[in-house]
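Support request, please re-run this one:
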Amino acid sequence: MSRFHQGRLLFLLLLAVMGAHTWLTSLRPESRLLFDQLPPVPRIPVAPVAGLGDREAGGRLITLWLQGYDTQAAADLRLRDLDYLRLRQWLVQADLSLAHSIYPIFLAAMIYGSVPDPGRGKVMYELARELFRTDPETRWYWFAMATSLAWHRLADKDLPLAMAEDLYRMAPAEAPDWARYLKLYLLRSANEVEMALFMARRALEEGRFASERDEQALAEFIQRLEEQKSEGEGGHDR
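Re-run finished. Output below.
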């Protein structure tokens, strides 16, 4: 390649970088603005533009830009002011560009889902559920974390129980028991012994185990549940 063509290519690359910088700067939140002014997602795919044709690089830039909204003082208060429906759309955009990445589901579960607002938290836990379903093999761990957090933070237990059921059905065989059978532990902690017994017996009948040791562990868990149920019924009789 001649020096002329090299210089021209460098000039065009510089223009592209400056254009991307200008675009990202225009989206950056000003300190004087309220943090609920997260801009809507453009109709055109954003990641290829931000990444100068590299979708994954663009997806990473989107996640970094989003986190600019929670790196200020009093971040918890600011997160509660964010438009979580728009935030969800931005995270979906990032995820579409980051194939098999765990970062969007990590942000949804551990950062944005941790806001002390049940409504906003629920939006993120539902998003974590969707992201898990697209790639259970690599995202089961952070989805299990999201399920546990949802159980403790949401008054309505229907969503975390549905999330735990997804883990049971879709988590890979190499995932540990605490993740695959999280629903059992949640039901037991809520003293829902009948429901826990039903699920445990169903799991035993389906034979969803990697080894005889796992099967034996579940059988012992069922035995403890039956003992707990008997003790509860004995207490009622007294």
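DSSP finds 13 helices and no strands in the chain. The mean pLDDT is 77.
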